[in-house]
Amino acid sequence: MIYRPGQIVPTSGQYAVVNLQGYSIGREVTVVKGEPFPPVPSGYGFKLVDPTKHWR
Fold first, then answer.
1. Total Cβ atoms within 10 A of residue 46
2. pLDDT tens-digit readout, 13-26
């Protein structure tokens, strides 16, 4: 799934910045569940590549 800037992050972790076809442009961001995704240029979004691991 590709998330848009401003949407609420569903899972903490590393997200690749991707075009709308889902291809990475070579950048990743770390975001926290419950926060909004940061702004990116029009036509780009985010795709989860590495969820944060939770310790018990």
1. 23
2. 999 999 989 999 99
